[in-house]
């Protein structure tokens, strides 16, 4: 690897971060989509096919949280959360700690009419309980609202509160300091006023597809464009976008070795329950699905020292991935249980072998814990993490593009087969 490619990778990463947080439906996301169309065309040598993705755009128009004594608290409304009545809701806060199923069960009688408070968890770990699971339990138990406490001092947290059309609650991220001020002692039930005003409108986002065909089928290399408001969405997913561009460039320089084609896919509205990739996979015919040998999904590939493949139950791809990582001399962790935390999940659900490459999986000290907070900025990413992710991704992608057809058939073997 030369210095030139390293500096181009870093330059493109910075240019993506310069667009801002890239929340779907904002000028920041539109600028990033235009940038990725341009950079993707330069990297692949083909113009982007633009695929419209209809979705319901959501925006918080106003939000406030007022605690005892009129204390005004910081908060970040969760994406697609519900609105309160115009004057807000006044209710007691019930602290359920981490928000485990056991805690919801133990306090079931106290939840109706109260605002449930839980903790945000490290997203990239094996035993994480997803925020939407906790919100769902709060709804079922009759809560009036939902607060989720950020992972580090001074930080609120973002994330989506609901999938499209599903019931939801007024819901917001708050900082640990706010949580401690509201509930200074165990069992405290402070009365607060939570006000959230939202508006929704029918909108259209854009997926970008770059096809570099070869003889037989293709490998889909994907990364999502959109992000969250609070910062630069640098780890999630400026890192994946920049690495995808770099890896596409390197693979195309070795095109004469390919046995199948490459489709580079930059999906949109990923942070809204994987909408862009769901739309893409749903539009594929059975023959088109069968022609995709593998989805290599790069999402948050920097922000931690380790790299892990989330293999979605596709045991058949694991020996292949380990071989490719070994050839690059880069350790690769494997985590097999299906995780619906990025676009690879929609491929896997359709029976297409798919994995997500992620950095810092299970590492509680990694910068990856800042994802969805104001600290997901370029300074949370070490340049060496980007170059290492690019080297590993290149080895995997080239192995996938050159593998004989009988080898790729084995990739479709699932865990239970
Ligand atoms: Zn992501």
TrEMBL record:
Domain spans labelled Peptidase M28: 216-393
Keyword Magnesium listed: no
Write out the GO MF terms: carboxypeptidase activity; metal ion binding; metallodipeptidase activity
List UniProt keywords, sorted A-Z: Carboxypeptidase, Endoplasmic reticulum, Glycoprotein, Golgi apparatus, Hydrolase, Lysosome, Metal-binding, Metalloprotease, Protease, Secreted, Signal, Zinc, Zymogen
Q: Gene Ontology terms, cellular component aspect?
A: extracellular region; lysosome
The PA domain extends over 99-182
Q: Which GO terms describe its biological process?
A: proteolysis
Q: Where in the cell is it found?
A: Endoplasmic reticulum; Golgi apparatus; Lysosome; Secreted
On assembly, the entry states: Homodimer. The monomeric form is inactive while the homodimer is active.
Q: What is this protein called?
A: Carboxypeptidase Q
Which species is the source of this protein?
Answer: Acuticoccus sediminis
């Amino acid at each position: 690897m030369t210095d030139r490619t390293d500096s181009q990778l870093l330059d493109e990463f910075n240019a993506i971060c310069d667009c801002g947080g890239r929340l779907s439906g904002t000028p920041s996301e539109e600028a990033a989509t235009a940038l990725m169309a341009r950079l993707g065309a330069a990297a692949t040598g083909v113009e982007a096919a633009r695929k419209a993705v209809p979705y319901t755009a959501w925006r918080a128009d106003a939000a406030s949280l007022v605690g005892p004594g009129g204390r005004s608290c910081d908060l970040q409304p969760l994406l697609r959360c519900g609105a309160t009545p115009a004057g807000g809701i006044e209710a007691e806060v019930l602290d359920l700690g981490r928000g485990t199923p056991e805690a919801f069960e133990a306090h079931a009688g106290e939840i109706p009419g109260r605002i449930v408070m839980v903790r945000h968890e490290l997203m990239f770990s094996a035993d994480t309980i997803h925020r939407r699971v906790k919100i769902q339990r709060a709804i079922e138990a009759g809560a009036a609202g939902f607060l989720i406490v950020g992972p580090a001092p001074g930080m609120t947290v973002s994330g989506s509160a609901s999938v499209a059309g599903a019931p939801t609650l007024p819901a917001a991220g708050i900082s640990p300091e706010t949580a401690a001020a509201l509930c200074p002692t165990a069992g405290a039930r402070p009365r607060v006023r939570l006000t959230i005003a939202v508006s929704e409108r029918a909108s259209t986002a854009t997926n970008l597809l770059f096809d570099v065909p070869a003889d037989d089928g293709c490998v889909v290399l994907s990364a999502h464009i959109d992000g969250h408001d609070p910062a630069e969405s640098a780890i999630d997913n400026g890192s994946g976008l920049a690495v995808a561009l770099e890896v596409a460039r390197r693979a195309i320089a070795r095109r004469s070795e390919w046995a199948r084609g490459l489709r580079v896919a930059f999906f949109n509205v990923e942070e809204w329950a994987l909408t862009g990739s769901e739309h893409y996979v749903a539009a594929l015919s059975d023959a088109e699905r069968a022609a995709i040998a593998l989805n290599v999904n790069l999402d948050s590939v920097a922000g931690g020292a380790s790299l892990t493949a989330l293999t979605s139950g596709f045991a058949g791809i694991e020996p292949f991935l380990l071989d490719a990582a070994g050839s690059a001399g880069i350790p690769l962790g494997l985590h097999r249980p299906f995780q619906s935390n990025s676009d690879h999940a929609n491929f896997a659900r359709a029976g297409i072998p798919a994995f997500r490459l992620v950095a810092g999986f299970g590492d509680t000290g990694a910068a990856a814990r800042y994802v969805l907070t104001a600290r997901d900025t370029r300074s949370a990413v070490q340049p060496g993490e980007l170059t290492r992710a690019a080297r590993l991704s290149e080895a995997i992608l080239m192995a996938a593009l050159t593998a004989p057809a009988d080898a790729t058939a084995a990739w479709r073997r699932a865990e239970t087969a």
